[in-house]
Each structure stands twice: as structure tokens, then as C-alpha cells.
């Protein structure tokens, strides 16, 4: 059943309670490899399920538009202070509802409609809100995109510099959702300074690695940093924007009243608890283990002939081009899901296939690391993946349920916060 127990929902709304219990079991029984997902602690879960959800608090501490903020003000202030201390930033806004609104706030603060922005293309590993044509950020601004080099699968900073000096963007964004390699923040900062642009680091995927010392920090290089709180950082679904002192006020105005109404105070509490956890020494061990596991999984997949974009990983994430395995990303992802291995199909750089039916899969190690798996388990995981993908490439469903049962058996020894039998 779900942990903490949910007796009131069980009694009042068994239909919804059943879905919650089943989802908790599903999360316990599978290898969850979506690199943007994780398992939050029971303390974070508890914080998110409190009476704080009852309260409206438009504005900021000491400057609210509703009364009754005696306890919300210190709560939000503590969350801000913890974020500032953890990352060494001058200022933290903890109100963005999630990553996309956080990025929209940045545009609102530092660009006008029609202005040029420079970011990584979605197809190379960026994000929808980095100026994709289907996103408001692509419709209302003039995006110019950099990608990766075909030979290396990595960003070429000379290409970024050439584009920046030619296009003179207002904003340069570094970071994305499918980047397996270390982001060179000092190089981006030098280019932004030369081009006269505001450098924005979207560190959503790697915030937990940065907090835990397993990836270089953008603080001191990018004056504006956006992040979600629920990926490697292991907090609830939410977001933050970190800034230097100079960029704090425009960001605060953009988040509220520019873009949002009242902050979600129960989420703010969950973020504060997660930041407290991320400041502990154990979190550094977790962050290092996430990377060690990803490198071990990459090595095991390479041994089995898998084609990894950029040849491997420096962080939590692997992007695999399945073209040489004779199967596309989507059927592979569906077969893996049935075999108890949950990941997502994903475009790879220079993909010849469509985004809804691309050539690759994207996977990562944050969630399995949280539940205690280590490098020694990665060859076994790679073997299960290989067996399922090979079977799927021959339209053979026979091994999938057996693999799922074997995975259930293994994972029973690695309990998750959120479910108990
Ligand atoms: N949906 C997130 C991810 O999976 O990377 C990005 O917003």
C-alpha cells in the first residue's frame, strides 16, 4: 500500500485510492529509468500533503496581498535561504509552478516579443521552452538554435560563439533535457559577455548533481539559473530561479505578478524539506553514485554494441541511438516498459525519423540510485534491456513478462519511500 497510509481516501474515494496504491506498487516494481524522475523521501511526501495547500499568498514575504501570512512568510523565506545556501546564489525565487513557467519568467524579465534568443535545439537535447516552434517561446520570440557536432555528439563552443556574435541574442540558454555531457558554463559565460546577452543556465536535469558536487555549478557564470526541483534534486514537482543580486528584482516581478498568481505553499514546504536533505553529506554520496551508475550502465551497453550519443555519459543520462539494433525508439520503449524497465523514446541528434517515432531512447540513473542500486547491478540491467530490445526487434513478446518478474524479484530488496507490501 501507499506510504504514508491514505485511510481517508481509502474510505471516502476508493476509486482514486486504488489508483494511488497501484501507482505506488508500479513505482516499486519497475526499474524507473526516466532521467527526469526520482523517488522523493517520506518527509517530502508528507510536506506536500499538508494544510499549506489551503492558503493563498500572492506576493513575497512581507509584501502579500492576503492576510494570514504569519507562517507562510517564514516558510517561503526558509526555502529561499536553503536554496541560496545550497547553491551559493545571491537570490532564490521558489515560486515557479514548474520548469516551463520558470523559463517563461526569464523571457518576460529579459526579452521583448520578437527578440532573438539562442538555445540548444530540442532535437539536439534542448527543451520545448528553449524556442521550439510549437512552444509559445518559439512563436513569440525569434529563436536561433545551436546543436551538437555530428562526429562527437557534443556542443561545439566555437559554433555557439559564431552564432551568438552573428545573431546578437538577448538571451543565451545553456542546458537541456537530453545532454549526456558536462556543460561548459565558463565558456558559455565568455560568449554571453562578448555578445552582450544574458546567460541563463537551465540546470533542471542536473541540479541534484550540482548540489551534490558531481557536476560543475553555473553559479558565478550564469546570472540567471532555472531549475525544476523534482529531478536529480529529488524534491516535489516545482521549480526555482536562482539569480545574482542584479537580476533578482526583474525575475521576482516576472514570476509575480508577471506570470503567476499565488504560490503553491505545500510545494514550497516540500522544496524546503528536499533542500534540507540535499545539504546533508549523504546527498553528496547519492550524487556521485548517480554518475557512477550511469557510467557503469553506459559501459555495459557499449559492451553489448549499443550506440550511445557522444559515446557515453558524464552525468545521470544516456541517449541511445537504436538504428544499428534494427528497431525504433518507440517499440523498444514499449517492450521495455512491459519488461519492467520504464524509460522514454527520444530523438537523437540528426534523427531521420519523426519526433513521435524517433530512433532513440533516453534513460538515466537517479531513481535507481535513490533506492540503493550500485555499479554492480548495471551489467544485469543492461543484459535485461538487451534481451527485451532484441526480442522486440523480432516481434517476440515471450521473454518480456519473465524479465519483468525477475526485475520485481531483484527490486523487492530495494524498497522505495512511498510503498510497502
Ligand atoms: N519533461 C522533462 C524531461 O523529461 O526531461 C523536461 O521538462
Short description:
The chain is α/β, with parallel strands linked by helices and 421 residues long. The protein has helices spanning 7-12, 14-29, 42-48, 72-87, 99-110, 136-139, 157-167, 185-195, 207-211, 245-259, 265-278, 281-303, 329-338, 366-370, 378-393, 398-411, and strands at 31-32, 59-60, 63-64, 91-93, 116-120, 142-146, 171-174, 198-202, 224-228, 239-243, 307-308, 317-321, 341-342, 344-346, 360-364.
Structure characterization notes:
The mean pLDDT is 98. It is globular and about 60 Å long. It starts with 6 loop residues before the first helix and ends in a 10-residue tail after the last helix. The chain has helices spanning 7-12, 14-29, 42-48, 72-87, 99-110, 136-139, 157-167, 185-195, 207-211, 245-259, 265-278, 281-303, 329-338, 366-370, 378-393, 398-411, and strands at residues 31-32, 59-60, 63-64, 91-93, 116-120, 142-146, 171-174, 198-202, 224-228, 239-243, 307-308, 317-321, 341-342, 344-346, 360-364. With 421 residues, the chain is of the alpha/beta class. It is built from 16 helices and 15 strands. Residues 36, 99, 127, 177 line the site of D-serine.
What is the terminal-to-terminal distance?
Answer: 6 Å
- Helix and strand composition category: alpha/beta
Main β-sheet, in a few words? 7 strands, mixed
Low-confidence stretches: none
Question: Numbering strands along the chain, what is their spatial order in the largest sheet?
Answer: 4-10-9-8-7-5-6
Number of strands: 15
Q: What is the C-level CATH assignment of the largest domain?
A: Alpha Beta
Average predicted confidence as pLDDT: 98
Strand content: 5-15%
CATH fold topology of the largest domain: Aspartate Aminotransferase, domain 2
Oligomer state of the chains in this structure? single chain
Give the helix level as a range of percent. Answer: 40-55%
CATH architecture annotation name of the largest domain: 3-Layer(aba) Sandwich
Number of helices: 16
Number of domains: 2
Bound molecules: D-serine
Overall outline: globular
Cα radius of gyration in angstroms: 22 Å
The CATH homologous superfamily name of the largest domain equals Type I PLP-dependent aspartate aminotransferase-like (Major domain)
Amino acid at each position: 500500500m501507499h506510504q504514508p497510509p491514505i485511510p481517508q481516501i481509502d474510505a471516502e474515494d476508493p476509486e482514486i485510492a486504488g489508483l494511488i496504491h497501484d501507482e505506488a506498487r508500479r513505482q516499486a516494481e519497475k526499474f524507473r529509468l526516466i532521467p527526469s524522475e526520482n523517488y522523493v523521501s517520506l518527509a517530502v511526501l508528507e510536506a506536500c500533503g499538508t494544510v499549506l495547500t489551503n492558503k493563498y499568498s500572492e506576493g513575497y514575504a512581507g509584501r502579500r496581498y492576503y492576510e494570514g501570512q504569519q507562517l507562510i512568510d517564514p516558510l517561503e523565506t526558509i526555502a529561499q535561504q536553503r536554496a541560496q545556501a545550497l547553491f551559493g546564489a545571491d537570490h532564490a525565487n521558489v515560486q515557479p509552478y514548474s520548469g516551463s513557467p520558470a523559463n517563461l519568467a526569464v523571457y518576460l524579465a529579459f526579452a521583448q516579443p520578437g527578440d532573438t534568443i539562442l538555445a540548444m535545439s530540442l532535437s539536439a537535447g534542448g527543451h520545448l521552452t528553449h524556442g521550439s516552434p510549437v512552444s509559445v517561446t518559439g512563436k513569440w520570440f525569434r529563436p536561433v538554435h545551436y546543436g551538437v557536432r555530428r562526429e562527437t555528439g557534443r556542443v561545439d563552443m566555437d559554433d555557439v560563439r559564431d552564432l551568438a556574435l552573428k545573431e546578437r541574442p538577448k538571451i543565451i540558454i545553456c542546458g537541456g533535457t537530453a545532454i549526456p555531457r558536462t556543460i561548459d558554463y565558463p565558456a558559455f559565460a565568455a560568449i554571453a559577455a562578448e555578445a552582450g546577452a544574458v546567460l541563463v543556465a537551465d540546470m533542471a536535469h542536473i541540479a541534484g548533481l550540482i548540489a551534490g558536487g558531481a557536476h560543475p555549478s553555473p553559479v558565478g557564470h550564469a546570472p540567471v539559473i532555472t531549475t525544476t526541483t523534482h529531478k536529480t534534486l529529488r524534491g516535489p514537482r516545482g521549480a526555482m530561479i536562482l539569480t545574482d543580486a542584479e537580476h533578482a528584482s526583474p525575475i521576482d516581478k516576472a514570476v509575480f505578478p508577471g506570470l503567476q498568481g499565488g504560490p503553491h505553499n505545500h510545494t514550497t514546504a516540500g522544496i524546503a524539506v528536499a533542500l534540507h536533505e540535499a545539504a546533508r553529506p549523504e546527498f553528496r554520496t547519492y550524487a556521485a553514485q548517480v554518475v557512477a551508475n550511469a557510467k557503469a550502465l553506459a559501459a555495459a551497453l557499449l559492451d553489448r554494441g549499443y550506440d550511445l550519443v557522444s559515446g557515453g555519459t558524464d552525468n545521470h543520462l544516456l541517449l541511445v541511438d537504436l538504428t544499428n539494433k534494427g528497431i525504433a525508439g518507440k517499440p523498444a520503449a514499449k517492450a521495455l516498459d512491459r519488461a519492467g524497465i520504464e524509460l522514454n523514446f527520444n530523438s537523437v541528434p540528426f534523427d531521420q525519423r519523426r519526433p513521435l517515432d524517433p530512433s532513440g531512447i533516453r534513460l538515466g540513473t537517479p531513481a535507481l540510485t535513490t533506492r540503493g542500486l550500485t555499479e554492480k547491478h548495471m551489467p544485469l540491467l543492461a543484459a535485461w534491456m538487451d534481451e527485451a530490445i532484441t526480442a522486440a526487434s523480432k516481434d517476440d513478446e515471450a521473454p518480456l513478462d519473465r524479465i519483468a518478474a525477475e526485475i520485481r524479484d531483484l527490486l523487492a530488496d530495494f524498497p522505495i519511500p512511498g510503498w510497502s507490501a
